[in-house]
Amino acid sequence: MRIVSLLLVLLLLFTPSSAKDKPNVVVSFYPLYDFTKNIGKERINITTLIPFAVEPHDWEPSPKDLMKIMSADLFIYNGAGLEPWADKLIKDSKRNNLVVVDIYKSIRAKGEDPHIWLDPVLVKAQLKVIKDALIKIDPKNRFYYETNYKNYLRKIEELDREIKDTLARCKKKVFVTSHNAFSRFAERYGLVQIPMTGITPESEPNPRDLAEVIKVIKKYDIKYIFTEPLISPRLAQSISRETGTKILVLDPIEGLSESDIKAGKDYISKMREN
Question: Full-prediction pTM beyond 0.85?
Answer without folding.
Answer: yes
